[in-house]
Every structure is written in structure tokens, then in C-alpha cells.
Write a structure and sequence with these properties.
The complex is a heterodimer of chains A (about 350) and B (about 375). Chain A is built from eleven helices and twelve strands. With about 350 residues, chain A is of the alpha+beta class. Among the domains of chain A are: about 55 residues, no CATH class; about 140 residues, no CATH class. The N terminus and C terminus of chain A are likely disordered. Chain B is of the alpha+beta class and about 375 residues long. Chain B contains 13 helices and ten strands. In chain B, the strands form two sheets. In chain B, strands 4-3-2-1-7-6-5 form a seven-stranded antiparallel sheet. Chain B has a three-stranded mixed sheet with strand order 8-10-9. In chain B, helix 4 crosses helix 6, helix 6 crosses helix 9 and helix 7 packs antiparallel against helix 8. At the A-B interface, helix 1, helix 2, strand 4 and helix 9 of A face strand 4, strand 7, helix 2, helix 7 and helix 8 of B.
Chain lengths: ~350, ~375
């Protein structure tokens, strides 16, 4: 809540940055012409969308080569395969006639995976199995199981922040990198507090919890020197959430799509960047149809149709979202952050789906 | 060849997109920004191409390490022009080879399918066999006792030392002449109407009351036991566990990153696959089971008549579907194979037990209170 500072502020305004930042001035392309300070051009207004131009056929081609190389390298190519897919999806996403670019590498993902395995997966698995292998008493076994669960619960927020930090830092548009500048500890505290408050408030804290998470992740996201802002409040979603919960059983769970669509619209309308505001036209019916048809398609083809379904889902999702109002891009400068892929590797162990492959 | 191209320039420091013209020279690109007239030169050997290899994608050239500058050129013919103008530009993508690349991708598809099928039908079974053979018997035994505890909790076991001894005697007779083997066989009878028998790893055989009560003589049960003993000796269950795990890894590699929902679909495919694989195991257990009976001097007709009886029951749609047939895909063909195998051996004259004595054994669970007889799950 203290983080919901609207509008863009200087990157250093909030005290020390959580991660070492690379100041803009230190990175200067060798051949770049000397920049003369230009007067800011008038911000263009209107409604803008990300257009996804990818095709299922191309993605399938990438997938086929990936499968072959994964099989031939006993799985090691997996990380490079992931990069190739992301590269394609990012490159096919166009905003204001410029494509996004993905800058991650397979090597980074492999190192991230190895680190996450060493620091999280191996200790957790050993701790889980060791008491039983050593023939410890049932009490010891139960206590260590609980410790492992707590250990894992602490790693989930670390994984969420880490994965998002990594993905944003490896995404650029017009050569400007995105970034997440947030303290992992702060998010972990928010997360643990949320899971303690939800049972205490009989679940009524849940809308505030998800909005707080969203606010944290959004308002710490930057595009170059431009900060995203989010000014939503959990209580605004409380009635919709309550309705969805009450209707969950009678509607066979479909009310959840209605709530998810409402939430997406709410998130979009309360998010701003560079003077413009997001807007979403998603409805519960659209979301339900897209999600269910994607699931059915995947299950019926045992996953083989995923290139086409991913393209379809991405295209629809982008169609629903627009950025309205004057968009002032000219004063945005590069402010890249140094980030490693450990959080990304961790997220892999939790199967945390953060959207976009 | 055209040497001048329209482009957009991103300086890697601001979000401004600037119009530029690019002139191709023998060693690199001469870039001139339209606004301000700044000119600079990019040598080919410092240029990386990061976009523009797929249909409909603009060409993106980058220069610089961490936060590169970029040139965007809408027309892919630029690449052909640059490649033609300089040998130093040969690392750029060649649009003329797109058809070739599509062909290569198709080749990759065929190879990947062949490789996956090879791994599935040859690699995984071979690996599972080798791996299962190396699992220590003590591991199999502890796994087996866990399975027995699951199917036959102590409260549901039918325990009668005298009649149990008759069944154990059949097992002893069957395994007496078997090649050296490390297992200690134990038969556990479960008070459940299910018509089934399960061979757990490590020598534990679970016999459900429903199956036992359907046997008319000792030879019929001996047939079932011979079949189950062969499962244990061939380590079929241990092998299936390895197969199941490796198939999971193979499928994850095939469908990539789509987790969650697809897992359900995959689980179905995996189950179908393991049924297919278990069919081979069943014929193996049939074939060697018959041989086991013959070596032990037990009439093989019992095994065949019992399977026929279950088959007939399945066809008539009895109240309890014999699960033994569902997990053991018995067909008329299978019975025919058994007949052929049985005919090859000599038929012994002696009987294991007189039929009236067998009636007592097969009702091992008979004197238990009615409520304990209802199958609980």
C-alpha cells in the first residue's frame, strides 16, 4: 500500500535500489551519435494495442526442431529450446509497429535451473526423504515434512519475484529494457502475511491479498526510466469475489471466469504507464470460452496442438487489452538492471505459470 | 543489387525510433539518420541478426554487448543484398534458403517421430529391463510389502493356517524345480469379491477371495499361481515402474512446456501405453507359466479351463466383471496359444488334491461374518 505511488518517479527516489542498477550513462554504444537534448515531442494519443503476428505453423516448426534436439541431447537442450520459443513469441508481438525482443539465453536458464536445484530442490527432497530412510520415528518424519512445507512456502514468493524480475529484464521494446525493481523480502512478507490473514478473516482478505500482490509487482515494474503505477484497492473486488464464491457450485465453477475477467478489467483500468491507461474488454464468457477450448484442444491432442493454441490464446489476450490516452515515450531512457535466472529456475520447480510460456 | 535501404534506428538508450537510411558497402553498413544527418558505420563482423528469420518478421540487426543498438529493416530482401555485396555478411540469414529450412524442419519432424518411437518401443523397454534386473531384491521386497499392505490390510486377510498350507504347498511344488531364484513366495488371501490376483515385486502374491472361489480344483489355482510367479520372476512390476517413469519423461520432452492441464491428457495416453506394454508381459507370464506347471508335473488343463471360465463369464456379463480379465487382456487367441503350448507337453496323471478337499480350501474366507465379506475400498 505504501508502494502505490502514482505516476513515474525518479528511479532513485525511493531510497537505495533493491538491485545494483546500471546507470544510464555508463552504457554508451560505441558508434552512437552524440545525442543532443531534443524537445519532447507532443505525446500521441489514441488507443493502442499489442498485435500478435505469429503463426502456429512456424511455432510448430520451432517445436519440432526443439523436440529433436531435446531427445538427442538427453534433455539438456531444453533450456535453449525455451529461449527459441520465447524469442519467437516476443518477436511476433508488435506494439506501435515495433516488435518486442527477448534477450535471455539458454546458458542463463541452465545456470538458473542448476542453482535452484542446488539451493532448493535438493535440500527439500533430502529433508523430505532422509528421516524415513534413516528409520526415524513418525513424529520426526511429520515434523520434517512440515518444515519442508514451510521451506517450500517461503520459496514460492521468491520464485514469483525472481521469475518476473528475470523475464522483464530480458524483454525490450524499441531497445529499452523492462525491469522489476523490488525487494524479494518485502514480497515474501506480503505473501506470508496474506496467507496468515486469509484463514483469520475466513477468506475475506483474499481479494486484498491478490490486489496487494498485483500492486507490488506492477508498481515495481519499469519500462526503462518509466515506472508503471497501479492504484487499485482490494475492497473494490470484494463484492465480485464474494458473488463468484457463492455462485461457484451452482454454476459449476464458471462464475470464477466471470470474476477473473472482472479482475483483469480492474487491473487494466487501474494501471498506468507514461501517461496512458490500460483498458481491457475481456468478459467472463470470452475468457471461459478461450480457456476451456484451449484445455480441451490440448487434452484431445495430448498437447500436440499447443503451438496453434498458444498462438490463438496470445492473439486473443492481446486483442482484449489496449493502452489508451497520450503515450509519452520520448523522454524514456534505458535503465537496465543486472539480474540472474535463479528465480526463473525456481519457478520451474513450482510449475508456476506466469503467463507466456 | 539494391544497396540503399530504409531503416529505423534504436540507439539502445532512448525509446525514440529514428528513421535512417542504410547503405551496404563491402565491409559493413553505412547508416545515416534522416533527422540531424548523423552518420556512422557498422562493420559486418560486429553485427548480430536477432529477428527476421521467420516469415513476416522484420530484420533486426544488433550491435554492442549488453544493451545493444538496433537497426530495423522491413524488407527481407535487404539480407540477400547484403550477402551478395560482401562475404563478411555470410552470417546473416539467407531468405533464399527458407524453402530449404522448411524442408529441414520437415526432416527434423520425421527424425523426431522416428526417434521418439524408437525410444518408446525399443529404448524404454530395454532400459526398464536392464534397470529392473539391477534393483536389489530387498528393495523389491519392501516395495512389495507396501503393495500388499495397500491391497490387503491385516483386517481383511483371510487367515487359516491349515488351508493356507494347501495353497503354499502348490507354490512350493511350482517353485521347487525353478532355476536358482532369490525370492521367497508368500500368498496372501484377501476377503474381497474382486476376481483378481496381483503379483507384487519381491515374491508377494495377493489372491482375492472372488478369484479363489471361482476355482473348481487345485489345478486351476495352480495355473493362476504359475502365471503370477512368472510375473515375479520376470520382475514385471518393477520393470513397469521404470517404464512408467521414463515414458513420463519422454512425453514431457515431446509436448514441451505445457504443464498442468495437459498432464491429464498425457496420463491417459500413458495408461494406454502401459496397457500395451503389459500385454507383452502377460504373454510372457502365460508362456512361462505353462512351462512352470509342466516342470512341476501339474496338469496344465486347469489353467486353460479357468481362463475359459472367466472368459465365458465376461461374455455373459456376470454381476461382477472379472477384473482378472480386464487387467489381463485374455482373448480367445490367448487361450488358443495356451492350448498349443500345453499340447506340446506330456499330461501328468496325478491330481494335486481331490475335488471335495479343494472345496474346503477355496472357501478359505467362507466362515467369516457377512459384513466382513463386503468389499470395502
Amino acid at each position: 500500500m505504501a508502494d502505490s505511488q502514482p505516476g513515474a518517479v525518479s528511479p532513485f527516489a525511493r531510497g537505495p535500489a533493491p538491485r545494483p542498477t546500471v546507470p544510464t550513462t555508463t552504457i554508451r554504444p560505441a558508434s552512437a551519435p552524440p545525442t543532443t537534448p531534443r524537445p519532447p515531442a507532443p505525446a500521441s494519443s489514441g488507443s493502442r494495442r499489442v498485435i500478435f503476428r505469429g503463426s502456429g505453423g512456424s511455432l510448430f516448426g520451432i517445436h519440432v526442431v526443439n523436440v529433436l534436439l531435446i531427445l538427442a541431447t538427453f534433455g539438456i537442450y531444453y533450456f535453449w529450446a525455451k529461449v527459441r520459443v520465447r524469442n519467437y513469441l516476443w518477436s511476433q508481438s508488435e506494439f506501435e509497429s515495433d516488435r518486442f525482443a527477448y534477450h535471455g539465453t539458454g546458458r542463463e536458464l541452465l545456470i538458473g535451473f542448476v542453482k535452484a536445484a542446488l539451493f532448493f530442490f535438493l535440500p527439500a527432497t533430502l529433508l523430505n526423504m532422509l528421516p524415513e530412510l534413516l528409520g526415524a520415528s513418525p513424529v520426526v518424519i511429520i515434523v520434517t515434512r512440515m518444515l519442508v512445507s514451510i521451506f517450500a512456502a517461503i520459496f514460492i514468493p521468491i520464485a514469483i519475484v525472481g521469475a518476473r524480475r528475470y523475464r522483464l529484464s530480458r524483454t525490450s521494446w524499441r531497445g529499452i529494457r523492462f525491469s522489476l525493481r523490488a525487494s524479494t523480502g518485502e514480497f515474501a512478507r506480503l505473501w506470508i502475511r496474506g496467507w496468515l490473514l486469509i484463514p483469520l478473516t475466513l477468506g475475506l482478505y483474499y481479494p486484498s491479498f491478490i490486489v496487494n500482490q498485483h500492486r507490488f509487482l506492477t508498481s515495481h515494474s519499469w519500462f526503462g526510466s518509466e515506472r508503471f503505477s497501479f492504484e487499485g484497492r482490494g475492497r473494490d473486488l470484494l463484492p465480485a469475489w464474494f458473488g463468484a464464491v457463492v455462485l461457484f457450485v451452482p454454476t459449476l465453477g464458471l462464475s470464477w471466469f466471470w470474476f477473473a475477467a472482472k479482475r483483469q478489467r480492474y487491473y487494466a483500468e487501474h494501471t498506468r504507464v507514461a501517461g496512458a491507461r490500460f483498458r481491457s474488454t475481456v468478459t467472463g464468457a470470452k475468457l471461459a470460452w478461450l480457456t476451456i477450448s484451449t484445455w480441451v484442444g490440448l487434452i484431445c491432442t495430448i498437447g500436440l496442438a499447443w503451438p496453434w493454441l498458444t498462438v490463438r490464446r496470445t492473439r486473443r489476450t492481446f486483442e482484449w487489452l489496449s493502452l489508451d490516452g497520450p503515450l509519452a515515450l520520448d523522454n524514456i531512457t534505458q535503465q537496465a538492471q543486472q539480474v540472474n535466472a535463479t528465480g526463473e529456475g525456481l519457478a520451474g520447480f513450482f510449475d508456476a505459470d506466469l503467463g507466456f510460456t | 543489387m539494391r544497396l540503399d535501404w530504409d531503416a529505423a534506428y534504436l540507439d539502445g538508450r532512448t525509446a525514440a525510433r529514428r528513421r535512417a537510411t542504410v547503405h551496404i558497402t563491402r565491409t559493413g553498413l553505412d547508416v545515416a539518420l534522416i533527422e540531424g544527418g548523423t552518420r556512422f558505420f557498422w562493420p559486418f563482423r560486429e553485427i548480430r541478426q536477432t529477428q527476421g528469420t521467420y516469415a513476416g518478421e522484420q530484420v533486426r540487426l544488433e550491435r554492442g554487448r549488453d544493451l545493444p543498438e538496433a537497426l530495423l529493416i522491413g524488407d527481407v530482401d535487404f539480407l540477400s543484398a547484403a550477402r551478395a555485396a560482401s562475404p563478411e555478411a555470410s552470417h546473416l540469414h539467407d531468405p533464399a534458403r527458407r524453402r530449404f529450412r522448411v524442408g529441414l524442419t520437415f526432416g527434423a519432424l520425421v527424425t523426431a517421430v522416428a526417434l521418439a518411437l524408437g525410444i518408446y518401443y525399443v529404448g524404454i523397454p530395454a532400459f526398464a529391463q536392464v534397470a529392473a534386473a539391477r534393483v536389489p531384491v530387498s528393495w523389491e521386497e519392501s516395495l512389495g510389502s507396501a503393495i500388499v499392505d495397500h491391497f490387503a490390510p491385516t483386517a481383511r486377510r483371510c487367515e487359516d493356517p491349515v488351508r493356507q498350507a494347501r495353497i503354499d504347498a502348490i507354490v512350493t511344488q511350482l517353485t521347487a524345480k525353478v532355476r536358482p531364484q532369490p525370492y521367497t513366495f508368500r500368498v496372501t488371501v484377501v476377503n474381497s469379491a474382486i476376481v483378481n490376483a496381483v503379483a507384487a515385486p519381491g515374491g508377494n502374491i495377493i489372491l482375492f477371495r472372488g478369484l479363489l472361489e471361482r476355482t473348481d480344483n487345485a489345478e486351476e489355482l495352480a495355473g493362476v499361481l504359475a502365471h503370477e510367479i512368472e510375473h515375479v520372476l520376470h520382475r514385471h512390476v518393477t520393470r513397469a515402474i521404470f517404464q512408467h517413469a521414463s515414458t513420463g519423461i519422454l512425453m514431457a520432452a515431446l509436448v514441451g512446456d505445457v504443464s498442468g492441464v495437459v498432464a491429464y491428457g498425457l496420463e491417459g495416453a500413458r495408461t494406454l501405453g502401459s496397457l500395451q506394454m503389459s500385454r507383452t508381459a502377460e504373454s510372457e507370464a502365460d508362456r512361462d507359466g505353462i512351462r512352470l506347471l509342466q516342470e512341476a508335473g501339474i496338469d496344465t488343463a486347469g489353467m486353460i479351463t479357468f481362463f475359459e471360465k472367466l472368459l465365458a463369464r465376461e461374455r455373459s456379463g456376470g454381476d461382477i466383471v472379472p477384473r482378472y480379465l480386464r487387467t489381463h487382456p485374455t482373448t480367445t487367441e490367448r487361450i488358443a496359444t495356451l492350448r498349443a503350448l500345453a499340447a506340446a507337453g506330456a499330461r501328468p496323471s496325478g491330481r494335486l488334491l481331490p475335488d471335495d478337499e479343494w472345496d474346503g480350501v477355496k472357501n478359505l474366507c467362507g466362515e467369516l461374518p457377512a459384513d466382513a465379506r463386503s468389499p470395502r475400498r
